[in-house]
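Open question from group meeting: does this chain pack into something compact, or does most of it stay loose? Before anyone orders reagents, we agreed to write out a predicted structure and look at it together. Recording both the input and the output here so the notebook holds the full record.
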Amino acid sequence: MPETSAWERASPDTGAAPAPRPETPAPPANADWPPPGSHASHTPPETLATGFVGTRRAVFWLALKTGVFTVLTLGIYRFWMKTRLRRWYWSSTRPGGTPLEYVGDPYEKLLGFLIAVVILAFYIGVVNLLLMFASFSLFQQNFVAYLLSLLGLIPLWFYASYRARRYVLARTRWRGVRFGMAPGAWGYVWRAMLHWTLTLLTLGLLWPRMTFWLEKYRTDRTYFGDAQLVQGGRWWMLYRATIPMVLALAMGAGAAALTVSGTPQVGSPLATLAALLAVYGWVHYRVVTTRLLANHKSAAGVTLEANPRPLRILMIRVLGTLATAIVLALPLTLLGFGVALVQFAETPLMQEFGELGALLATVPRLVLAALGVALYFAIFLLWATFTHAWVTMPVWRHYATTLTIRNPAALRGISQRARDEFQEAEGFAEALDVGASI
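Structure tokens returned:
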């Protein structure tokens, strides 16, 4: 009896449209490729490069259209907006020529959000009331209650981030095989709090240790089909990523010493350079640790090779954000002018504008206020749209196109995994605004 491939065994997930397929079907995960009888070599490739086929124009119009629907529906459409954007990003990312698929359901997101809101409402309404009563009874002020309430949200933040990642993986497929993540949110919570405490107590010296062990906890519970991912390496290998940040701190300390010693003309430029280097150092740390951790991940003999460049990521973010700010300068100016009109419409100041001021003074304030609100939402909508086109998509493309899969022949031994229902979806992440826009 011929072996059934992982592609054929993959049952379609319900509630979501499939991502677009490439014109030439990609091989199943455990089938012979090229097919018997073809003129191509039967030797499997040693690596699979990752391509990205998305364009700025496509994501711009998709983000703009879905953003308008979100505003018109007072935010309800945001779950459909996020789903459609994820499907676009996933299907544009093609390891070995085969697109990723995102099969998440917006109804799942909406239901999970409502569940999270109910739980958080109970926490805020009941627990905070008890904390406020105890604070006034014991300390005659409410500062302690606010502090304990804020500290109580920290475990929920870590819980939400783990659950969100688990949901996204559970709704992602490649070559018809599902990704997945084992339960373990509360285990991640206490580990994250412990590592953060140690990092703060050591003034950041153990930050690489925290980065490594939290990523290892998440990676070791991640699956592609029935293959478990493993995070290799050692935590101290991440210290090489901190070199620019350490140099920035040293320059900042030198600038402070020079300023205190009475030579601010030297200390001030040095402090500026230290600040710029610190910005680059933070980006450098994020990119290099991502690269090092990715290069030490493996699953059933399959390994990764990532080579993102920190300076490239920094330039994309700086230039993209700057371009977005320049484009939005005119709407922001109009918004400021509209606020001034509402504020000074009936004051002698409007007389300085002559006939234009007299005409504007006759416009009802309600109309001006409505126009101001519309312009306010338009600015946020355009900011999100241009950010997708000029920042998020280029960064995503750079990470994707610098990723290579090694030993893809081992994919043949990977079988399908059961679908994780996960009805709660990423509701806590939505309610607490954890993670990126997609």
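Observations to bring back to the group:
Residues 1-41 have pLDDT under 50 and may be disordered.
Residues 365-401 form the longest helix (37 residues).
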